[in-house]
Amino acid sequence: MEWIKTILAKHLKEDGTLDLEAANKEIDAEFPKNAVPKEDFNSKVNELKTANDTINTLQADNKDVEKLQTEISDYKSKIEQLETERETTATRATLEKSLRDAGAKDIDYLVFKLGEVEKDKDGSIKDLDSKIKDLKTTYANQFDPIVDDKGGGGGTGFKTIENNLNDGKQSDPDLTAQMISAFTSDIPTTEK
C-alpha cells in the first residue's frame, strides 16, 4: 500500500498535521486504480470458486475420455479389418463361382495360381475372363472339357440322355372305373 503512504506524505503540512480532507479525496480518486472494492473482490472470488468447481467436475466426468478414445480407435481398426476380410471373402467367392462355371476341377489350386487380383472401381475383378482363359491354357488338365448340347466336343463330359418324356404331359388315357377295380380286385379284404 505504498500509494497511500505517498498520498499521505503529499498532504502533510509543515507543522506535522495532515490535511485529512484532501488526503481522503485523493485516496478515493486513486483507490479504483490501485485496489479492488470488496464487492468486486468477493464477486471475483465466487467466480473463481465456480470455475474451479467446474474444472473439477469436468475432470471427474472426463476421467475416462482417454480410455474411450483408445476404445474408439480400436473399434475403427477392427471395422477396417472386418471390411478387408469381407472384401477378401467376396473376391474369393466371385473367383470360385467363375472357375466353377468354367469347369474347374481343383478350384483352390487355381485360385492360388491366380494370386492377387486387382479390382475395378465398381468392385468387380479386372480382366477375370482373360485370366480364366489363361488358366485354361496353362492348366488345361485342371478343367473338364466342355461338351455342347449335341454331345460334341470330343470330351468325356456330360451328355444329355434321351428320356422320351413328353414335357410333363400325361400320355396314358384317364383311368376308368373298370381299370381301378382291376387293380384293387386282388387286394384281400378283411370282413368281420
Summarize this structure briefly.
The protein has seven helices and no strands. By secondary structure, it is an all-alpha fold.
Structural class: mainly alpha
* Number of separate helices: 7
Assign an overall shape. elongated
Query: Main sheet, how many strands, which sense, barrel?
Result: none
CA gyration radius, whole angstroms = 50 Å
Mean pLDDT equals 78
Helix coverage percent of residues?
Answer: 55-70%
- The amount of beta strand, in percent, is under 5%
Task: Kindly report how far apart the N and C termini lie.
Answer: 133 Å
DSSP, total strands: 0
What are the low-pLDDT stretches, counting only 5+ consecutive residues below 50?
Answer: 147-155
SSE arrangement, N to C:
HHHHHHH
Descriptive terms for the model:
mainly alpha; 192 residues
Notes on the protein architecture:
The protein is an all-alpha fold and 192 residues long. Helices cover 58% and strands 0% of the residues. The protein has seven helices and no strands. It has helices at residues 2-10, 20-34, 38-61, 65-101, 107-114, 128-138, 177-184. The longest helix is centred in the middle third of the chain and has 37 residues, at 65-101. It is elongated, with a radius of gyration of 50 Å. The N and C termini lie far apart (133 Å). The model is unreliable at 147-155 (pLDDT under 50).
